[in-house]
Design brief:
This protein has about 220 residues and is α+β, with helices and mostly antiparallel strands. Helix content is about 25%, strand content about 30%. A 6-stranded antiparallel β-sheet has the order 1-2-6-5-4-3. A 5-stranded antiparallel β-sheet has the order 10-9-8-7-11. Helix 1 packs antiparallel against helix 3. The longest helix is centred in the middle third of the chain and has 21 residues.
Length: about 220
């Protein structure tokens, strides 16, 4: 059965590409959800994005404040990072055997961020001006993750995925630069396709698609 590990502090938190995730004990939430989906790897590409849209929806409903999603895995308020999502999987033959969804959310921290994070990080409480009941918040989060996971596995998520993503998309209509090794591609973000790939519209009107696991966005 699925299970979740919750923490108020992590000693070695990390994000995409092994980056450091500052996980101090200052009112924030760190959660790891473990699943055994037994799905082919090709089905999993939209998973992180689908879970991100559901986290944003849950936060919006719980806090009466609307976050934004920066493709592929950042949750933002006021353009500053309030959370991140990381998915890791173990493949056995032709199916995903083990899947871990890691979620880090700045919930009640007061803004004492280390170094240059002062300008780039924010907590939900900072944005709303109100501290949250962390236990109630966690209960709502677990319920939403469970229902979102079930709809992903049975495929019913496809009916609302695009609409939900567009509701929280932080990049649509903005100029972005995608880094792919030494290659830089600039254009206007035009949402995502059905697989969760970022659609980038170039100067001449042609579109390119980029997979989340293969590229990163240049820092603005």
């Amino acid at each position: 059965a699925p299970f979740v590990v919750l923490a108020r502090e992590q000693l070695r938190g990390r994000g995409r590409f092994g980056r450091v995730w500052h996980s101090h004990a200052n009112g924030n939430l760190y959660a790891s959800f473990a699943f055994r989906p037994h799905l082919p790897p090709g089905r999993m590409q939209p998973f992180t994005l689908w879970m991100g849209t559901n986290l944003c929806e849950m936060i919006a409903n719980f806090c009466r404040a609307t976050p934004a999603l920066k493709w592929p895995n950042d949750i933002l308020f006021e353009g500053r990072k309030a959370g991140g999502i990381l998915t890791e999987a173990r493949v056995d033959a032709d199916e995903i055997r083990d899947l871990v969804l890691g979620v880090g959310l700045n919930v009640n921290s007061s803004g004492a961020w280390p170094g240059d994070l002062v300008q780039r990080a924010i907590s939900i409480a900072e944005h709303t001006g109100t501290a949250l009941d962390l236990n109630r918040f966690v209960a709502a989060l677990i319920g939403r993750v469970q229902s979102a996971y079930a709809s992903f596995v049975n495929g019913s998520y496809e009916r609302s995925f695009s609409q939900l993503w567009n509701r929280y998309d932080a990049l649509r209509g903005h100029a972005v630069t995608v880094l792919q090794g030494d290659r830089r591609t600039s254009g206007i973000a035009a949402g995502i396709d059905a697989d969760g790939s970022l659609v980038l519209r170039g100067e001449k009107g042609h579109s390119e698609r980029f997979h989340a696991g293969e590229v990163t966005l240049a820092k603005s």
